[in-house]
Amino acid sequence: MISRVFILSTLLSSASAYSLAPVLQGLKAPSSAPLCHKFSARPGVRRGLTPVRAGDQPIPEGFREFQAREKSLDEWFAKLADSRSSIRQMASIKIAEMHDKEGEEQEKAVIQRLFSYLTLEDVHERRAAVQALGMIGQKVLPPLVDMLLATEDRVVRASCSKAIGAVALKNPELLPEFPQLALDGMKKAILDIPDPVTKIATISSLGQIGGGDVAHGYPGMREGSGCSH
């Protein structure tokens, strides 16, 4: 029985091979035909693709062109608490740019709001407010000096000193003749306030003012602030 099955399967295999041979021969590619085609493409352009710019295409009916909405001051103030430093930095820049866009009343409100941020517990919000005040510039120096000398909170005092230093850093054109009011206020803070945190922050800011911005050609103070007296 086994031998019959073996003989039968052998005969069927042979018959199938002979019957399929012409078909398989017909599937062979001619020896002269190339195995693949070469496509030329310009440098920087993928093969078979045509570069299309968004501006080249009409806006479909029922759709409108996307336009980024400018954030309000309140929205940028909220970003000062963002966990990402890049977002906080952008918020500081935008607040400084927009602080006086609507006139003097808005200017005062924004500066006062930034001063309130110097009293917050969150260090990221305080630092972002310091940078924004620095970018606003010289006009914030008198209230910063007042707050530096009046507050009993050493963290707030340090933030005020750092904000004065930020004004110098962000506005290097002020360095050769930095406002004497600010220098006198920092001198008083160093001499009269025993707190080491205040002294370190204030001395650091004085170092920024005295050192100048050599990279951009701005020298430091030509005369000392009188702190050595």
UniProtKB/TrEMBL annotation:
| The UniProt record lists the keyword Lyase | yes
Identify the stretch annotated as signal peptide in this record: 1-17
Pfam families per record: HEAT_2 (PF13646)
Q: Which domain of life is it from?
A: Eukaryota
Q: Which UniProt keywords apply?
A: Lyase, Signal
Gene Ontology terms for molecular function: lyase activity
**Which spans are transmembrane here?**
none
Name used for this protein in its record = Phycoerythrin Lyase
Name of the encoding gene: cpeZ
